[in-house]
Amino acid sequence: MKLKFAFLNFFLGCISLLIINTKFTSNVKAEELLKVELNAEIKKGKFLIGLKQYLGGENDSFSNKKSINFITDKGFLNLISSNGIKHKSKQINISWVDIPIKNPKKIERIVFGPFASYESAKKQAEKLKDKGYETTVACPKNWEVWIPFEDNLPEFESKNKIFRKIKNFQVTPVLKSEYSVMKLEGPIYINAQEEIKINGVYFGKNFYLIKDSYGTWTLVQKIDFDDYLAGVLPHEIGTNSPLEALKAQAVIARTWGIFNSDRFNMDKYHLCITTQCQVYKPSKIKNIKVQKAIEATSDLILTYRNQPINAFYHASNGGVSATAGESWQMQDYYYFKSIIDGSRSLNKNFKLPITSESDLNNFFDFDKEQFFGSNHSLFRWNKKISSLEIKEKLIKNKLININDDILDVNSIERGSSGRVTKLEIQTNKVNKSIVLVKDDIRRVLNFIPSNLFTINKLSDDLWLLRGGGFGHGVGLSQSGAIEMAKLGFSYKQILNHYYRDAKLKKIEILSQ
């Protein structure tokens, strides 16, 4: 086996020197194309989107047999690799091979997490930085915080995982053609004048393959802000939403993307395409109403003190919005307030904060028609949960052992909107209870739609949760925005309702 890998390494090393004499045409120097400067791209009005992560590794679900095929219907594809290879053709096939490393590398680090969100991981990283530690926010599968391993850190050993790995192989991309195989180095730039089909799906015109921090690779799309929004709005708020709600979503999706464009800095791109960022799916067919909303709000973002805001949004707030600090382990933002999301008469009849379960039950008893967004399927919900369901989730998250039993579940702290910020789960072990905090409640007990709920014990091993809303509850409620638009509110009024004291401004402020 060693002889086989040694031969492969030698073979790839040799053929990498045999660069095919292919023509490459571009108005931009190759060196410029291969520069990945994240802040500069934002100022140019472009996002680098991680379309497919962990390519070439165990979690690679995109590459077909560890291979990616790029193809155009009419024109030509251009490829530039950092090791000088330039290639032009109608079809490009890149495969991944594991090449042995001459001097295996030892990797050691201390891992904090997993965290339910980037926001909570970032807060932990900031705490460690304040103590003088070098930190990295990473996402190998879930959000984590890494610090370098040192022998003089005994206080961390019992609380957090020590990651150790000997790296014997390097996941390497190779360019395959009918007559040769060439070893590539990242970043690898691939572009065309027309839409490129990747593994049978149209994605766009400009792409990078970039090596990540986990030894695998990411397929990154370079895309204008508004083209990105065209792939976000249909999947975040829906094409059937009223135009003013779509306009509001366009503004906050653009704003959120810019504010959060640093979350994948370590891997040289801005955003992912899942619910950990904003759901994005490229579409070759443009929706007319979506395009109208994007064009009507082009270059507009929400700001506070002349800076883009962290424009959180969600599906349904259950009739009351949350502050950022009660939903995540992070600082509060001034522009997020707990508000009763409904008519003026409703706001006169019910006041915040909601401090107890009885107050929240009274809130749930109010007439649904008084609230914005009450048509959402999870605006009000009831869920029975058993001790076995809870136990399975806690075991999966390595919080209890298989021999532990669940005795009781109680909310021990609530935020101003009535959301549970600390949930205590008592077990049969003496002096042992599990306390889930804020976003960890829904990360661990992921069958709960939101943290806005009351608890009623039905029996020794069964509880009824009576709740409202779907999601974290911070910022714009999409179902609320849709209803407000139907009632005649403009997108500016909708934004002002959910983001108090935030101002609409042109995107040019990013260059100031």
Protein architecture, described:
By secondary structure, the protein is of the alpha+beta class. The strands form five sheets. Strands 1, 2, 3, 4, 5, 6, 7, 8, 9, 10, 11 and 12 form a twelve-stranded antiparallel β-sheet that branches. It has a three-stranded antiparallel β-sheet with strand order 14-13-23. Strands 16-21-20 form a three-stranded antiparallel β-sheet. It folds into three domains: 2-37 and 52-98 and 169-224, no CATH class; 101-168, 2-Layer Sandwich (Alpha-Beta Plaits); 312-474, no CATH class. It has 15 helices and 23 strands. Helix 6 (225-236) packs across helix 8, helix 7 runs antiparallel to helix 14 and helix 7 (243-259) crosses helix 15 (491-498). The chain is globular, with a radius of gyration of 26 Å.
Highlighted features:
3 domains; 15 helices; three-stranded antiparallel beta sheet; disordered N terminus; alpha+beta; 512 residues; twelve-stranded antiparallel beta sheet; Alpha-Beta Plaits
Strand content: 25-35%
Please compute the radius of gyration using only Cα atoms: 26 Å
Number of domains: 3
For the terminal residues, how far apart are their CA atoms?
A: 58 Å
Question: How would you describe the shape?
Answer: globular
Q: What is this entry, summarized?
A:
This protein has 512 residues and is an alpha+beta fold. The protein has helices spanning 2-15, 30-33, 38-43, 118-130, 154-157, 225-236, 243-259, 288-296, 324-327, 344-349, 357-364, 387-396, 439-444, 478-486, 491-498, and strands at residues 46-55, 67-71, 77-81, 86-89, 91-115, 136-138, 143-148, 161-176, 181-183, 188-198, 201-211, 217-224, 300-304, 307-308, 313-314, 381-386, 406-414, 420-427, 433-437, 453-459, 462-467, 476-477, 503-506.
